[in-house]
Structure formats: structure tokens, C-alpha cells
Design a protein that fits this description.
Largest sheet: 4 strands, antiparallel
Strand content: 15-25%
Shape: globular
Radius of gyration: 22 Å
Mean pLDDT: 79
Length: 289
């Protein structure tokens, strides 16, 4: 690593941390560099005065992201392993490999597909409700789907949950930890509260629906909607964690869609809004590097 790269990386990391609500940096140093995938990924050790300790992963042609040292990632190796997964996800995202919001959670686990099948089947069953037990069956399907989601999340972050002494079937606490992991920092404190409340409501209503003989078709629909929302919340929190919050936004029309062109006059790269054609950003040779 050249001195120029180090200075530029430190500046970019400071700006990134500030954008995530992390201030008061008192120590910033590369903890470990990994090159087993053919390119260098640097894991930085960041200590702050008030916001705790963090790992930051970055490198050339590698996205930047931060991970808390205080609760979830206790070593540079753990942070690197997770960062590799994020880099792979971002690469797939840039290739346009999106799924329908309920089709598949972005956790690379095959069993998640059955959650989608289960919930879509329940949506069809609502059209054939003729007795209270049919409503109870919808509630049971929703509950089983959330149990399966909890098991999936548990396997994805098993070391974290073992350290917290959380069991694989503890849906509420598993989601609480995952929400804190995917939406960390001060700027997401309200979002964490809203997500926890919605997900816990989905779990509680499914239990109520299973054990009540007084529910009707609208109750079954509400139960299913809340369950699908719980699944969708986890998915979209993960997308935020991947870096959606740092996407380029046009200052003129606020569009998130843009194209990159090379200027013929000075060979600079310019980012142009796809909607209003405003020049959003100009990249110098140093920025491109």
C-alpha cells in the first residue's frame, strides 16, 4: 500500500463513518490485509471517543462497509469473511439479479425458498376459507414460516447467537439481533424500533390466530400481510446493509438512476442523471483509481 493510497483511504473512511453517524475517531489503523481472492481487501481497526469500536472493510474495486466490534464481529477475520459475502452480493446486484421481494431472502440459503412457497400457498388458501379452522391453518402457516426464517437467520450468524445464548427457535430475539446488525448506528435507531415492533406484532398475531376460533377471513389476511411484511423487512434491512444508503442521488430531481460517461475533452468520467440529464458527479483520474 502506497502512502498516497493510505491517505486517500483514511479520508474516505472518515467521510463514510460520518455519513453513518459515527464521529470522534481517535484511532485508525489497518488491522489485516487479505488477498486470497486475487485482490487486496483491507480491514481497518477504528476506535472512537463515543461511538465504540468498528471494523471497516475496503480495497480497490471493493465496496466499503463497517462492522461493530462491540457485539458481533470480534476479529478482523470475522469482519473480512462477512465483507466477502457483501462484495459478492453487490456484484450480483450490479448484474441485475433481483428477485421478487418475497421470492427469496438474500442470505444464500436454499431453505429460504420454501418460505416463499409456503406464504404464496397461504395466499391462495385464503380464497377457500369456509370454517374457523381454515383461518387457524393460515395462522399456523404464518407461524411456521417465521420459525423457518428464524432458523435460517440463526444458521447465517450462528456464532453471534451462541455468544448471546439465543436459541434457534427464539424468533423475536433472533430478529432483534439481526435488526441491530443490519441497521446499526444512531441514524437507524428509529428504524430499528419500527422494525422490531412490526416483526413482533406479526409473531404475536400468528399465535393468536392459531389459537382462536373467533377469527375471520380479514383476520387471516392481516396475519398473512404482517408475516410477509416481516420477511420483507429482514430482506430490505439486508439491502440497506449492503450499501443502498450510499447510492448516488441527483441533487436536482433526486432520481437514483444515473449513467456513467467518459468526457471526450479531458477523458474524465462523468455521472449523469438518467431523468433530468444533470451532471451529478465528475470523477478525476484519482477518483477512478
Amino acid at each position: 500500500m502506497t502512502p498516497e493510497y493510505r491517505m486517500d483511504a483514511e479520508e474516505r473512511i472518515a467521510k463514510y463513518l460520518n455519513s453513518q453517524g459515527v464521529d470522534g475517531i481517535k484511532y485508525m489503523q489497518i488491522e489485516q490485509t487479505f488477498d486470497d481472492l486475487g485482490h487486496e481487501v483491507h480491514i481497518w481497526n477504528i476506535k472512537t471517543k463515543t461511538d465504540g469500536d468498528w471494523w471497516v472493510g475496503e480495497g480497490e474495486n471493493v465496496p466499503m462497509n463497517l462492522y461493530t466490534q462491540n457485539e458481533y464481529f470480534f476479529s478482523a477475520d470475522e469482519a473480512y469473511s462477512f465483507h466477502v459475502g457483501i462484495s459478492t452480493r453487490l456484484h450480483a446486484r450490479s448484474a441485475g439479479n433481483f428477485k421478487h421481494i418475497i421470492d427469496e431472502l438474500p442470505l444464500d440459503l436454499e431453505m429460504v425458498r420454501s418460505i416463499s412457497r409456503r406464504l404464496n400457498a397461504a395466499a391462495l388458501d385464503i380464497n377457500d376459507i369456509s370454517a374457523p379452522e381454515d383461518v387457524q391453518h393460515i395462522g399456523l402457516t404464518c407461524r411456521e414460516s417465521m420459525v423457518e426464517l428464524a432458523a435460517t437467520l440463526y444458521k447465517s450468524h450462528e456464532d453471534i447467537f451462541k455468544k448471546e445464548d439465543i436459541k434457534a427457535a427464539d424468533f423475536k430475539n433472533i430478529c432483534r439481533i439481526v435488526i441491530g446488525l443490519y441497521a446499526s448506528g444512531k441514524r437507524n435507531s428509529s428504524l430499528r424500533k419500527y422494525c422490531r415492533s412490526t416483526i413482533e406484532s406479526a409473531w404475536d398475531l400468528s399465535a393468536e390466530t392459531v389459537h382462536s376460533s373467533n377469527k375471520n377471513t380479514p383476520d387471516a389476511k392481516i396475519c398473512l400481510l404482517l408475516t410477509c411484511t416481516a420477511v420483507s423487512l429482514i430482506e430490505n434491512l439486508y439491502f440497506k446493509f449492503l450499501g443502498y444508503d450510499n447510492e448516488i442521488k441527483c441533487p436536482n430531481c433526486h432520481s437514483l438512476e444515473s449513467d456513467v460517461y467518459e468526457s471526450e475533452s479531458d477523458k474524465q468520467m462523468i455521472i449523469v442523471c438518467r431523468q433530468c440529464h444533470e451532471v451529478v458527479q465528475t470523477l478525476s483520474e484519482e477518483d477512478k483509481a
